[in-house]
Amino acid sequence: MAKVKNLIIKGSDDKPIALDIFFNETHEQQPVIIYAHGFNGFKDWGNFDLIAEQFLASGFTFVKFNFSHNGTTPDTPEDFTDLEGFGENNYTKQLYDLGLVIDWVQHPANSLRYGIDKERIGLVGHSMGGGICILKTAEDSRIKALVTWAAIGACKTPWGGWSKEKMMEWKQSGVAYYTNSRTRQEMPLHYQLYEDYLLHDKQLDIPKAAATLPIPWLLCHGTEDTTVPVKVAYQFAAANPKATLLTVSSDHVFGRKHPWNPLEQPIPMQEVINKNILFFKQHL
């Protein structure tokens, strides 16, 4: 078994996507799981290699990546050093990035294709990444099974609860700032984020996409989540007969934090991982 860290592929606006792949060196093609991180997140948040290794040991190839405009760079994949890039991020760029990662997984020139069964692709998305995975699954038939962790219910992060006054200030100044609770950085959000949402509101309609997903879907959500209330998951499950809901007594990140130094996951996260692996074994 092997892993390759920080491979670079071209993303939205030609900005790089840093990508990790965990695969079996026996040349046996395995179903591939692709993970999409959330807002203010990155592929290595909370020592995500530990999670990837569990999927690998269970018979899957595992791919995780940094969205091209998430604020990190290939040289600093765990730090927000590209704040200008972060400010230019939006939902359609993330959808495009996820499509490019799927393209890379399936591309005949991919030197690691021997470890990938390109016809059996599953997605895992956390929070905003969960919303992106819902939207991508609704439009891309290459995806055969979906898992979401605390997925958002609308493409309105982080302005969904802002006042009219703050929205007007945002429009007038062209930029608003969001405080990263972990790093205390003031993260710029350019007004194009909202303009892009208005321009593509039908494509970015998560509830509509969620109700029409034609493939098996496992929703995982913490009952004590204060970032995305668990009622969002219940609404998704009620709207789609293909969806199965798993709730655990935990928060938005299932008990993890960054950095994460222990070699074991918190109990809620491990429960989610175990159920994810069983789900993908059944449906991929």
From TrEMBL:
UniProt domain AB hydrolase-1: residue ranges: 31-159
UniProt cross-references to Pfam families, sorted A to Z: Abhydrolase_1
Record key words, sorted: Hydrolase
Keyword Hydrolase in record: yes
InterPro entries per the UniProt record, alphabetical: AB_hydrolase_1, AB_hydrolase_fold, FrsA_esterase
UniProt family annotation: Belongs to the AB hydrolase superfamily. FUS2 hydrolase family.
Name of this protein: AB hydrolase-1 domain-containing protein
Organism, scientific name: Olivibacter ginsenosidimutans
Lineage: Bacteria, Pseudomonadati, Bacteroidota, Sphingobacteriia, Sphingobacteriales
